[in-house]
Records
---
Amino acid sequence: MSKNHFLHISDYTGDELWEILKLAKQIKAKFRARENYNHFNNKSLAMIFAKPSARTRVSFETGFEWMGGHALFLGPNDIGIGKREAIKDISRVFSRYNDMIMARLFDHKHIIELAEHSTIPVINGLTDYNHPCQIMTDIFTVWEHLNDIENIKIVYMGDGNNIVHSWLHLAMRFPLHFVCCCPKGYEPDSETVEKARAAEISKIEISHNPTEAVKDADMIYTDVWASMGQKEEAEARERIFKPFQVNQDLMNSTGKKTLFMHCLPAERDREVTDEVMESDYSIAFDQAENRLHVQNAIMIKLSKR
């Protein structure tokens, strides 16, 4: 099932992931040149959003329509996924209407069930467990800026969340030095950490000391401290996570030229200062643009299977 869909980065081999990255580079050049590229002519993409997102909707919709297809937005009021209607019923019906499904959901089990009953490709646009399109975008952006991705040190500052889980899945396929620096009690899923270590491809560290963690970092990455569904914890999290803020002092403590990444939206002067976001070493907006190109490459690859 997994090769017919894009649910987890580790469902694919390193070579297959490189194919996606190289295709994304070609697609980006075509898009920027405004070339006609009608790969999805007369095709439709159903976009299911249990969790809203500006970048996910705009990038998928813009990309699919640029490639000649039609993208349909279905928000929480259109589909009560797993509530108003069985997920397997939605999957079977959409498989008869559409050519591809992208779903941005809360419960990871829902994306798995959607894919199990679908006869068309399903793309994971985010779940509470992982965010594979984002991390494929991130490593593509790293490749653009550093011309290499092997054994670079990436330090994630903050909650051991879905972003971290997808970095760990990527570390099962590409040799990286990945550090999750988080407050105690906010570590990533332990089973995923052990799987990444067991692959014996990358160096994986869990740290609780920001200054030590960022030494020799090629990249520092952060995300909001309270994600969707955690906003009631925001005040408590702000106190706990404050020492993990990415600011100029932290960037200066790496001992080398270090780039900054953020998957957006950013809550400026919380997890990252405005100064860092606006700096010349911030590549957050390159990441945002590249969502479009990498997702296009993923959709093209799935359509050829």
Note: Residues 152 and 197 are 16 Å apart (CA to CA).
---
Amino acid sequence: MSTYFRDYPDDNGFFGPYGGAFVDDGLKNEMKRIADAYIRISKSHDFITELRQIRKHFQGRPTPVYYCRNLSDRVGGRIYLKREDLNHSGAHKLNHCMGEVMLARYMGKKKVIAETGAGQHGVAMATAAAYFGMPCDIYMGEVDIAKQHPNVLRMKILGANVIPVTFGQRTLKEAVDAAFDAYLKDPDNILYCIGSVVGPHPFPMMVRDFQKVVGDEAREQFLEMTGELPDAVTACVGGGSNSIGIFCGFLDDKDVALYGVEPLGRGGNPGDHAASMTYGKPGILHGFRSYTLQNPDGTPMPVYSCASGLDYQSVGPEHAFLRDSGRVEYVTADDKEALHAFYELSRTEGIIPAIESSHAVAFACRYAKDHPRRAILVNLSGRGDKDIDYVFERYGLGEHL
């Protein structure tokens, strides 16, 4: 039996050369307290029992695996979806948000804060905070607030305080900057619940562990449905929480190919995409080392994607490690491909996907055409309700794609 999850990350939070906690001494001590508290409660019978009850009775887990018969007939191959869009609040994000707020409660924190891009992490964090009765601040870039208006309203209805971020590109990276600044002012009373497998240790490990449920469920469900494992598994990659979650279920299955799909945006020129592992190089951002899109002077490069949840200059350190090891292949899909997949899945299956997830659907269609006898499982990480206004305003019904 593999010891991968016991071996990685190491005690200092490294996946090979990636990860760590590159923060000042005061915050380094706080990161150690968080790590120690997480290790204690994650092995606790009471914590595990409560989390399982929440997942079953509040979140509606397990989410199903679904065979896309119509889409498969159209493009070839066999395309399956892990329906994280049916997880309560509409995406995979609640899987780790409930766990993080439980950790905050255990540590005696008075408030939780978070960043959000597409708004799904913000909605999930607002949901978890409401469930546990804890105040919650959500930092969100002004550009994303305009793009993701339905999710902004959902966060406010759930009782969260949505704080606009008005500097820089006013998107996800700046939202992380603002949340870190707020956290540094009062780490004793606040827990910054990072929204992906990024940030200083222990967050990449914690979020992975909470998201691992997706892959564990999917592997068991696929075997039950088909009697075999999929030939390939794919998911979109921004920070990388949904993808690491489903990949975890199949890392030991060497005959299952794993594909992470990065956002190519408008193309390969600097500032036109957010494909950090395709075009980036190792560097440090937000307290961890991974592949990063950076200018020659080392500052973060401007990034772009039509998917607000993917336009980030770096990627989780475990993804960087899996890339270098060759276990996961990282590919790209551009805006046009993702939007075409958005409409295609909506019209063939009656499922409107998040634009983020549409990147993975786009690759799955490409894979299915090239491998008509194989099966590919997509992590449909979120639903597209949040994107409808933005998509219709800019692309109508997709006639010109």
Note: The mean pLDDT is 96.
---
Amino acid sequence: MSARQRILSILTDGESHTTAEVASALGLSPATVRRHVRALVHQGLGIQHVPTRTYRSCALFRPLNRQSILNHLGALASTITERLHLREQVDSTNLYLLRKAKGGQCFSGTTCIAEAQHAGRGRRGRSWVATPYSNVMLSMAWWLDDRAGTLAGLSLAAGVAVARGLADYGIAGVGLKWPNDILWQQRKLGGVLVDVHRRIGMGVLAIVGVGLNGFLAEQDAARIGQDWTDLRRMTGKAINRDRLVAFLIKQLYDMFEIFQHTGFAHFRVDWEQLHVSQGQRVRLLSKEQTVVGRALGVDDNGALRIMNDDRGIQVFHSGEISMRQSNEPPC
């Protein structure tokens, strides 16, 4: 555990602590403690500095704990222990696993969890906004056969796994938006990003990245250009990220084990039940065209099926397409 994480562990007990107390408890100099606290405040964490150089956390959060996550994993812990990587900061969890793969150190089920990312990505090259030490940023890698259509629908199957993990934790009412958004009451809670890398003689390495908003500080929330929510606002209390991460790992692991044999078809019905736009009028936007129609669901490859106003059915793969609800009446 880094010095910054150790400081956080002390400051998040709900009590006030002087610089001298924290420094003495951790064997650090007071100057080092002040430097790390300033950095944490700059990152958006709610740490209040009161007179006489006393600090108190205004937010209820805890640094992730690897052993606690393994404890919550139960029987899966023995399988994944050596494949679980918890990092304080990375460029992105997907890229971390890709580097592991290039070094021959990435096996199916290898997972990276990070407290902070400085190059986290969303769909279509967008940056992923997340307040450090407060959210869920994880990726899992899996080797799959390099067959035509093997990976079609993987991001949708991963969305089902995430929704199940949240339900296991006790978060109800989560929905999915094609192709990879996690929503709650029409507000974005998180998303899924899939990276695919082929290696001759080894098949395809699929890396599924998941980002969930645990808590977003105001300065980070201001950078998001759409309606959003986080788990703190949804539940009214801080979440146990160790427990939630364990549930997500279990569900993603189970999803991959099934997906490698059945593809997306096994998850299709569950995905459609979670789809927030199922049966509704939507507008699909791309560089080439705009299509308005009724969302019929998806096919066995995860492609969206739309009945347009001429009652013709069109099929769309994710690519550079975005989908919105439409209030336009049928022609």
Note: The longest helix spans residues 241-262.
